[in-house]
Amino acid sequence: MLEVRNLHVHYGGIHALHGLSLRVPDGQIVALLGANGAGKSTTLRAIMGLVKPSEGEITLDDQSLLGLHPYEVVRRGIAMVPEGRKVFVNLTVTENLRLGAYARNDPQQVERDLRDINVLFPRLAERQTQRAGTLSGGEQQMLALGRALMSKPRVLMIDEPSLGLAPVLAEGVFRKLQELNRNGQTILLIEQNARAGLSISDYAYILETGSVVLEGPAHELAQMDAVRQSYLGVH
């Protein structure tokens, strides 16, 4: 289980996270929801070792992740799909996927996992030698997911997977996340579309200005008047 306790993060004089705590149990999809600037991406960046917390604890199976470099966090079992996908546009689909396995030392299993990714994402299999920059937005999102999965993560963290995608493509991404979860993948999800995020999650946290203001089973939050009015556009 991934656990964050009393996390504080500062950017210069800006106090971005105020004692944030959350838990991501094995085998669940947990959503982080909130407006822009609420601290969602900062939380993921802190877990990955991309920003240094000023206070708090981050553990995976009770083993601290604090002070580790991002590549060490990946080796411990956490991978992140960043906002905007960030694929390597001048490399092919297959080259992008292989880069996801850079920290592994099991080349035969890497080849098997590469085949599995092509089964999971048939569109990528059709475009193995195509440069990533020529893919559609939805295909690039699938590639970013596949690249992260090539590290064999215990916890897959995804920042705004539907951003910039047409609704039909976003629905395809969400179906893939559910399929991954049914196969045992633990997921920590940031999603601007609160309705979609809640619909596929087991549990959710709602952040405002760096603090958790609401949490609970996703289906229960989706029925709360405050959530429906503020985040789901229901009045």
Beginning-to-end CA distance, first to last residue: 37 Å
Helix content: 25-40%
**Outline type:** globular
From the helix content, strand content and strand pairing, which structural class follows?
Answer: alpha/beta
Give average pLDDT, whole number.
Answer: 93
| Strand ordering within the main sheet | 6-7-8-3-9-10
Instruction: Count up the helices.
Output: 10
Please outline the major beta sheet. Answer: 6 strands, mixed
Share of β-strand residues: 25-35%
Radius of gyration: 17 Å
SSE layout and pairing:
Blueprint: E1 2-11, E2 14-24, E3 29-33, H1 40-47, E4 55-60, E5 63-64, H2 70-76, E6 78-81, H3 93-99, H4 107-120, H5 122-125, H6 137-149, E7 155-159, H7 167-182, E8 186-190, H8 194-200, E9 203-208, E10 211-217, H9 218-221, H10 225-230
Parallel strand pairs: 3-8, 3-9, 6-7, 7-8
Antiparallel strand pairs: 1-2, 1-4, 4-5, 9-10
Helix pairs in contact: 3-6
Summarize the structure in words:
With 235 residues, the chain is an alpha/beta fold. The chain is built from 10 helices and 10 strands. The strands form 2 sheets. The protein has a 6-stranded mixed beta sheet, sandwiched between helices. It has a 4-stranded antiparallel beta sheet with strand order 2-1-4-5, covered by helices on one side. Helix 7 (167-182) links the parallel strand 7 (155-159) and strand 8 (186-190). Helix 3 runs parallel beside helix 6 (137-149). The protein starts with a strand and ends in a 5-residue tail after the last helix. The relative contact order is 0.18.
